[in-house]
């Protein structure tokens, strides 16, 4: 199970507070309205007290005008509460949506700039949830402030002050028990937190089992694994049941103690009011005043436990994303990075070394150049480092030592955007967006016209199968292009590269998913695409690279041979061995795979 790393609450507030105060009018409108609501609700019982004091004197026509006047005042305060609630609601809606939009946008953009290594180390689904939970956490925290913490502070302090003005003892009793209740809730919430975290982890485990099983449904069916998957889910949901029961029972215990405390407070204040009434120090209306403030205070305090849990949850949810936002991007543009300008397309690797683990070097002191317009193939057993070379060229990873240059410009000193704009890339396993075919091909050149997209599709022999679809170029391809066959996805990726028409072209087994007929069409298209470009091709099927200008044989991260196909066959080396094995009917694979 994935270990959660959460940034401290202070880091969360450092992100949320500046984003909130960027909208001062909406913020002050919401805060001011919330305070106004509580002040009006505090004032209303004071006039209710006077109203009942007059009623206690019995029917008296001379007092009727005072009663009507008091009713008008109470109605006015009720209207003020209604007005401020609407103002707070509208202000809060606009403020929260604006801030949540900005937080989501910033988080998404920052996430996209992380490296390939970062994404290979994290589940995409988990990262998606972190972005959405980060946004939702702000709503939970701001709601807790507006509906719980701020109203509680204003109302309780105001109630204590007003009761203190009527009777010092009653005010002190309310203050004392309010502090006791708040301390109890704080301690109880902290004691319950491990149980809540255990329930949250159990819930995540259930989601993980469901997601893993459903996303691999084809494997479950093929290997008759439904019973095993059901057993895994049964264990996960049973663990959740145990954790949820412990957590929710703890909640009930907290509510039990809290309810007893509130009964004690209520009885204490009622008895105190009764004693002072018998002494003539308080009037009948003061009973109404005490009860009104007790009910209001209890309502505020009853919700504080629930809101404290929401705050803890929100801080934990936001903290996961803030931890990512606090982490430095692995691949960064240097300050003042230049824009790459490709004139000839000379690509040079000079003394390049690369590794993830120092005990396993992938490339070591690699020095090789691809001359302008030259078509160069990389061959070798799996794990030799071929794909690593292309990833370093695209700067998906940074070299550990040495340099990679294009027309004499170190790619570490130019912007990543300009570097990748200069390179067309067709991966071995192309991944498409869950968008239309038109949008997927146009991704190679976002301002391309429909006609340009269709022309590229025709060159890549996509147009034949696209034109047979009911929605043709408007057809949605499904998540990661699942609605298309492997060969169709590959042709779409090639069409995208044709449309981009970059001066440097990288093909990583670009025809590996094609049938023989389609491959012959694509080879023809690629021949046109490669004209005038510096081309780097990775291939396991050696028959596809026989006409390359040069073939680099890679083994253990080093170039062990560099020549044409015909010359390499004359040498008693690795290339000849690979060719003879393939001619015998299979391609060798090792336990390792290219990075």
Supply the key terms.
ABC transporter transmembrane region fold; elongated; 18 helices; Rossmann fold; disordered C terminus; alpha/beta; 62% helix; 3 domains; 595 residues; six-stranded mixed β-sheet
Number of helices: 18
Q: Which residue ranges are poorly predicted, with pLDDT under 50 across at least 5 consecutive positions?
A: 584-595
Beta strands, count: 10
CATH superfamily of the largest domain, by name, is: ABC transporter type 1, transmembrane domain
Q: In this structure, how is the largest beta sheet organized?
A: 6 strands, mixed
- Looking at the overall shape, the CATH architecture of the largest domain is Up-down Bundle
Specify Rg, calculated over alpha carbons: 35 Å
Which overall shape is indicated by the principal axes computed on the Cα atoms? elongated
In N-to-C order, the SSE pattern is HHHHHHHHHEEEHEEHEHHHHEHEEEHH
- What fraction of residues sit in β-strands? 5-15%
Helix content: 55-70%
How many domains in all? 3
Structural class: alpha/beta
The CATH topology of the largest domain is given as: ABC transporter transmembrane region fold
Strand order of the largest sheet: 6-7-8-3-9-10
> What is the CATH C level class of the largest domain, in words?
Mainly Alpha
Average pLDDT rating: 79
The rounded distance between the terminal residues' Cα atoms is 24 Å
């Amino acid at each position: 199970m994935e270990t959660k790393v959460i940034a401290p609450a202070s880091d969360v507030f450092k992100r949320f507070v500046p984003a909130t105060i960027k909208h001062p009018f909406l913020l002050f409108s919401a805060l001011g309205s919330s305070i106004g609501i509580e002040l009006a609700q505090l004032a209303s019982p004071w006039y209710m007290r006077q109203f009942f004091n007059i009623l206690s004197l019995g029917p008296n026509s001379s007092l009727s005008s005072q009663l009507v006047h008091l009713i008008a005042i109470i109605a006015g305060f009720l209207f003020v509460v209604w007005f401020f609630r609407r103002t707070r609601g509208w202000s809060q809606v606009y403020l929260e949506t604006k801030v949540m939009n900005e937080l989501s946008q910033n988080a998404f953009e920052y996430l996209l700039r992380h490296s390939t290594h970062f994404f290979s180390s994290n589940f995409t689904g988990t990262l998606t949830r972190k972005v959405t939970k980060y946004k939702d956490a702000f709503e939970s925290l701001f709601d807790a402030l507006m509906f719980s913490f701020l109203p509680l502070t204003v109302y309780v302090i105001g109630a204590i002050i007003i009761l203190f003005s009527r009777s010092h003892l009653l005010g002190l009793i309310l203050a004392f028990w309010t502090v006791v209740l708040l301390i109890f809730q704080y301690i109880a919430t902290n004691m319950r937190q491990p149980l809540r975290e255990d329930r949250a982890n159990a819930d995540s485990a259930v989601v993980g089992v469901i997601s893993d099983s459903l996303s691999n449904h084809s494997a479950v069916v093929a290997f008759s694994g439904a019973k095993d998957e059901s057993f895994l889910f049964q264990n996960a949901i049973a663990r959740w049941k145990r954790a949820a029961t412990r957590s929710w029972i703890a909640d009930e215990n907290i509510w039990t103690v809290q309810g007893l405390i509130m009964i004690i407070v209520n009885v204490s204040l009622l008895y105190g009011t009764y004693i002072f009434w018998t002494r003539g120090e308080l009037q009948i209306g003061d009973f109404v005043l005490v009860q009104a403030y007790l009910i209001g205070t209890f309502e505020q305090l009853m919700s504080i436990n629930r809101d404290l849990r929401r705050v803890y949850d929100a801080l934990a949810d936001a903290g996961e994303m803030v931890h990512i936002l606090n982490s430095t991007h692995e691949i960064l543009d240097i300050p003042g990075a230049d824009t790459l300008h490709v004139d000839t397309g000379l690509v040079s690797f000079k003394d390049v070394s690369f590794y993830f683990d120092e005990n396993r070097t992938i490339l070591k002191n690699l020095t090789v150049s691809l001359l302008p317009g030259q078509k160069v193939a990389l061959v070798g057993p799996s794990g030799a480092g071929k794909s690593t070379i292309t990833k370093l060229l695209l700067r998906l990873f940074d070299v550990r030592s040495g340099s990679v240059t294009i027309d004499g410009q170190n790619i570490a000193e130019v912007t990543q955007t300009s570097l990748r704009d200069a390179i067309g890339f067709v991966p071995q396993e192309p991944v498409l967006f869950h968008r239309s075919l038109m949008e997927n091909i146009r991704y190679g050149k976002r301002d391309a016209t429909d006609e340009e997209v269709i022309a590229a599709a025709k060159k890549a022999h996509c147009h034949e199968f696209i034109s047979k679809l009911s929605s043709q170029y408007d057809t949605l391809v499904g998540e990661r292009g699942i609605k298309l066959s492997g060969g169709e996805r590959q042709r779409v990726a090639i069409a995208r590269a044709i449309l981009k028409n970059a001066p440097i072209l990288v093909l990583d087994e670009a025809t590996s998913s094609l049938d023989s007929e389609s491959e012959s069409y694509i080879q023809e298209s690629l021949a046109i695409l490669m004209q005038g470009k510096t081309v780097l091709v990775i291939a396991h099927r050696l028959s596809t690279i026989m006409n390359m200008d040069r073939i680099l044989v890679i083994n253990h991260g080093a170039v062990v041979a560099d020549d044409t196909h015909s010359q390499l066959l004359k040498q008693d080396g690795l290339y000849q061995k690979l060719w003879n094995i393939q001619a015998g009917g299979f391609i060798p694979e090792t336990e390792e795979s290219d990075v």
